[in-house]
Amino acid sequence: MPALFVGHGSPMNALEDNRFVQGFRSIVKTIPKPKAILCISAHWYTRGTKVTAMSQPKTIHDFGGFPQALHEFQYPAPGSPELAKATASLVPKTPVALDQSWGLDHGAWAVLTHLYPNADIPVVQMSLDRTQTPEFHFELGKQLEVLRQRGILIVGSGNIVHNLRLVDFQNMERPNHGFDWAVEAQNFVNQQLANGDYEKLIDYSRRGRAISLAVPTPDHYLPLLYVLGLQHQPDQLQLFNNELVAGSISMTSVRLG
């Protein structure tokens, strides 16, 4: 099974028909139908590692200030307690809590609604442990690779460039609009992806001003490291939705395998 990192962008993408959601719809046509989905979302940032283990996860509206239609949106995919337990068992050196209270946040459903609009594939979310290093997250991704062999689609959801404090609200609709530092950061990451030089991506915090502006907090960046950890030979990487929006957000997405 391939794996995906998706730049999820605004939760409004759930309701819109734009070039990015068209990219999601196109890429899923290249992927066999999965038995289940494990999603690592930027929006479940916790102390410790958790997986959702309920049979029917709720749709979480973890935002404010958007139209009522978005707050009412539901993605009623079933959960999979079995996948949650199997995921925890794959990382015996990392305590993984079986969570009964979270659900699916917009990092998951705003994209999955375009990949699998019928919401008929079981979905489990895995949280990001905010106390751990980037290398920890990369190595944890490596340990999950066996799930690909079992027909599980692993989706990391975030944004490689994600600085909401510097969003250019005056140019939200301008195509492929990025500030100079955002273009530099995007080009740096894309070059390391092409080279397979993941050490530089793991050690991103030492890569200068552009990356520090692109990744002011780790939450939206770390899901990429999980997906890169899943790679094995002869997997290839394919970029899609490779654009910057509003000056300071990258929609760049990666198909692995």
From TrEMBL:
<dbReference type="GO" id="GO:0008198">
    <property type="term" value="F:ferrous iron binding"/>
</dbReference>
<protein>
    <submittedName>
        <fullName>Catalytic LigB subunit of aromatic ring-opening dioxygenase</fullName>
    </submittedName>
</protein>
<keyword id="KW-0223">Dioxygenase</keyword>
<comment type="similarity">
    <text>Belongs to the DODA-type extradiol aromatic ring-opening dioxygenase family.</text>
</comment>
<keyword id="KW-0479">Metal-binding</keyword>
<dbReference type="GO" id="GO:0008270">
    <property type="term" value="F:zinc ion binding"/>
</dbReference>
<feature type="domain" description="Extradiol ring-cleavage dioxygenase class III enzyme subunit B">
    <location>
        <begin position="4"/>
        <end position="232"/>
    </location>
</feature>
<dbReference type="InterPro" id="IPR004183">
    <property type="entry name" value="Xdiol_dOase_suB"/>
</dbReference>
<dbReference type="InterPro" id="IPR014436">
    <property type="entry name" value="Extradiol_dOase_DODA"/>
</dbReference>
<dbReference type="Pfam" id="PF02900">
    <property type="entry name" value="LigB"/>
</dbReference>
<keyword id="KW-0862">Zinc</keyword>
<keyword id="KW-0560">Oxidoreductase</keyword>
<dbReference type="GO" id="GO:0016702">
    <property type="term" value="F:oxidoreductase activity, acting on single donors with incorporation of molecular oxygen, incorporation of two atoms of oxygen"/>
</dbReference>
